[in-house]
Structures are given as structure tokens and as C-alpha cells.
Amino acid sequence: MRKQRSDGQETRQNLLTAAGEIFARKGFRDTTIAEICKQAGANTASVSYHFGSKEALYVESWRYAFTRSLSIYPPDGGIPHGAPPEERLHGRILAIMRRIIDPQSHDFDIFHKEMANPTGLLAKPMQESVEPIFKGLTLLVSELLGKEPQEPEVRLCAMSIRAQCFGPLLHARRRKRTQEPPTTCIESLPDDVEELADHVTRFSLAGIRALRPKHPQQSNNEVGS
Amino acid sequence: MRKQRSDGQETRQNLLTAAGEIFARKGFRDTTIAEICKQAGANTASVSYHFGSKEALYVESWRYAFTRSLSIYPPDGGIPHGAPPEERLHGRILAIMRRIIDPQSHDFDIFHKEMANPTGLLAKPMQESVEPIFKGLTLLVSELLGKEPQEPEVRLCAMSIRAQCFGPLLHARRRKRTQEPPTTCIESLPDDVEELADHVTRFSLAGIRALRPKHPQQSNNEVGS
DNA sequence: AAATAAATCAAATATACATTTAACTTATCA
DNA sequence: TGATAAGTTAAATGTATATTTGATTTATTT
Question: Residue B78, Cα to own-chain centre: how many angstroms?
């Protein structure tokens, strides 16, 4: 077997990164192979050659973007396993937000578009990738709440937290992209992710504590595993 | 000026309702005029005749769907102005959720797709329609929190509430459409909107109380306006 | 009943775009 | 050096679909 020409892998890479960015900005249907190839400095036929089709490129570019993003921002936020759960919650929230807000990361834009307007092409890979991250959050909430992970309260609280992470930041991303001024009250939120994460953590911890069984007053830290 | 033929307004109507449903399901780019016209029992040329273009039909069908939806589910949830703010919050949350979950209402699907993948066609009308609703929620939060509406804490809490309303229900809608079973932990949430609304209200009231200035313990109702 | 304008229709037109083709280039190995 | 295969290219092909056209139908008015 002959050694591959190095150029081949290079255009493949260029196509993947260009595709990730443009698919994230315009969605599957609105991006043309021509635009991707132009940005990647490649011929339009190269997509068919390297990936087989626009659809296959879509899937591959998402995998590529997601893997990269996850390696930069690990889901637990780098907080050690033994730290108090409040701190670990803050770490997870911050990790999600950083991942969404990073202008170099495109996987969340694609995720969002796929949620709103599914092509069906990413259903399985997204499921497999996102599920364990959400499961980690659910387990943490279960710990904070003092209930089993299957209990409806746990799932509801986990949902509340996830929703607060996604909602505001997708707006922020869009605003950054389109350069529109924050005229509306919807968009006027802090540019600083830390501030947002602090708020969501505090807000959610209060919400969780209000749903804790029995012991109404307990110290803020030190919730048994 | 002659009186219009009654049939004309009828196909116009049929086009509007068919368009609302299909645009909501497939998004602007993926729906074809042919499909809308087939469902409306009209000729493909009728869109151009009655609305001028696919784009104009898109805008009109959203306006139509939104107006209808708002008249069925008023933003304040029908709770009297004088009721305690906790109750009014619950009413607003329930109204948003009912509006999203109603299978006859398509404006929220279009809203969501437009957020994820803006055509730009709905920016102004959506802004004008949604802004006052959100402002109402912000004022209510300001009252509950005992701070001015401009304060960052008020906006953050209002965001937290909005996000909790949107997040889970868009999933629910999609699930209902595609008939997929709730295999993942993301989707396994109560089918009952009331339950969801109760949770979000309780969770959020706790979050708000935790951010109240001074007076740590105050009765649940009776927060001065 | 004839005239007029609104409304509908089947078919034609035009455009955008994914994919294919077949020729061409370049690197590797005998 | 020349054969082979990977990689690249401009142009061709085919399909999907928004919009237009010109003919036709229908209701209203005089």
C-alpha cells in the first residue's frame, strides 16, 4: 500500500473546519457546497471525493467540532470529584456556558439548529454524545437534592438548570454574530459568562434547596453523597 | 369598486393556515410552495397572486398564527391584576407553556426555528410582538424581587424563568411530532403542563427569594408592588 | 345578457445547486 | 525513468422549485 499524499489530508481538514463554521452559521439546507469549498480553498468536487456527499460532510464536521470542543471544556469543568457538590455544579454550569460562548466552537450552533429543524442526520451521534453529559448533571442534582436520580423532582431540576444554560447564551452567540445592538430587554444580559454562571448556580441551588425533603435548614456546603 | 368574490378570501385563509403548519414543521427553506398549495387545495400560482411571494406568505402566516395564539392564551394567564404576584407568576408561566404545547398553535415552532436559523424576515414583527410579553414578566419579577426593573438581578431572574419555559416544551413538541419514544433522560419529563408549570414556579420563586435584599424571611404572599 | 374584474389553472421559465465526469497533476515506487 | 494511484480541476448534468405567463372560469354590475 502506497503512502498517501499529504495534501489529501490537508484539504480534508480544511473542508471539515470550513464546513463546521458555515453549517453552524447557516444550517444544513442554507449552506452550499460551493461556499464551503471556496472558504476551504478546494474544488467543489472535493466534497464528493473526500466524504461522499454533503450529508456525510455534515455529520463528520459535527463530530469533529464536538470532539474538539469537549477536549477543551471537559463537562465537569475540571472540578475534582471530591469537591463539594455546590462547587461541582458551578463547574458544570460554567463548562457548558464556556463551550457555548466560545466563538471558535461551532458544535452548539449546529446542535441548536438540529433541535429546531432536524435533518435527522445527527440524531444518533448527538444522542450518544450529549446523553452522558446530561446524565452527569442529573447525578449531581440527585446528590444535591437527596433523592434518587429516577425521581421526577431530580429530572425537573436538572431540566431547569440545563434550560438556564442554553437559553441566554444562544441569544448571546447570535448577537455576537449579527453585531446587532441589544435594543430589546431579551438580550440585555451580562457579556461576562462568569456572572451568568454565578447567577444560574445561586438561583438553581436555591430552587433545589426548596425542594429538599425533610431538613429545611442545612449548611450550604457539605451535602452527603 | 366591485365587491370581492368570496372564494378569494377563502383560499387566502386556507393558504395562511396551511403555511403556518408546514412552515412550523419544516422551516422556511425546507417547505415548498407546492406542498402548501396542495394542502390548501390551491394552485401554486395562488401564493404569488395573494401574497406576492413565499417570503411574504411566511411573514403573514406567522402574524396570523401569533395573533390567534395570543387571543386564546393571554400572557397574564387570566389572573386578575390585583392577585398576589406569586399567583400571577404562575399564571404567566402556565400561559407560555400552554401556548407552546397546544398542537394547534404553530407560532412558537416558527419562533424557535427563526431563533436558531434566522431568515431575517421576522426580526421586526417578532421583536414587536414578543417584547411586551417579556416586559410584563420582567415587571412582575421586579415586584417579587423588590428591585427596579433595570437592575441586572431582575433581568437575570426573568431570563431564568423564560428559559425554563422554553427549554423543555420545545422538546416535548418535537417528540409529539416525530412520535419518538422518550429513550433519553433529556426527554423524560411530565406530559402534564400543569406539573411542569408548578415546578418552574416553585423553583423560580425559591431562586428569587434567595436574591431578595435584606429581609431574609418574609411571608410567601403579600409582596408590595 | 353583455361587460368587467377577480380568481384559478396548467404549463413554461428560470435559477440555484448537488453531484458526476473526464481530463489533468503530482507524488511515490519499481 | 516511467508506471500507478491519489488528488485536483473546470465544465457538464440533472433535479428541485420559486415565479411568471396567458388562457380560462366565475361572480358581480349595469
Answer: 16
Which chain A residues are Cβ-neighbours of B156 within 8 angstroms?
Answer: 189-190, 196, 199, 203
Instruction: Note the helical H segments in chain B.
Output: 6-30, 33-40, 45-51, 54-72, 85-101, 107-116, 123-145, 152-178, 193-210
Cα–Cα distance between A76 and B113 in angstroms, integer? 30
Bases of chain C below 7 A from a protein C-beta are 5-12, 16-22, 26-29
For B88-107, b where at least 16 C-beta lie within 10 A, e where not — what string?
A: bbbbbbbbbbbbbbbeebbb
Distance from the first to the final alpha carbon of chain B: 55
Q: Is the pLDDT of residue B197 over 90?
A: yes
Q: What are phi and psi of A213, to 5 degrees?
A: -75, 155
CB pairs under 8 A between A and B: 145
In angstroms, the CA B56 to CA A116 distance is 22
The tens digit of pLDDT for each residue in B77-114 reads 999 999 999 999 999 999 999 999 999 999 999 999 99
Query: If pLDDT is split at 50, 70 and 90, which confidence band does B169 have?
Result: confident
Per-residue pLDDT of A21-59, as tens digits, reads: 999 999 999 999 999 999 999 999 999 999 999 999 999
Asked if residues B77 and B91 have their Cβ atoms less than 8 Å apart, the reply is yes
Q: For residues A32 and A54, is the Cβ–Cβ distance under 8 A?
A: no
Cα separation, B59 vs B56, in Å, equals 5
Judging contacts by C-beta atoms under 8 Å, the chain A residues touching residue B164 are 159-160, 163-164
Instruction: State the amino acid at position B195 in one-letter form.
Output: E
Give chain B's length. 225
User: Which three cell numbers mark B126?
Assistant: 417578532
Tell me the one-letter amino acid at A111.
F
Q: How far apart are CA B17 and CA B36, in angstroms?
A: 9
For residue B222, pLDDT over 50 is answered with no
Whether residue A151 contacts residue B188, with contact meaning beta carbons closer than 8 Å, is answered with no
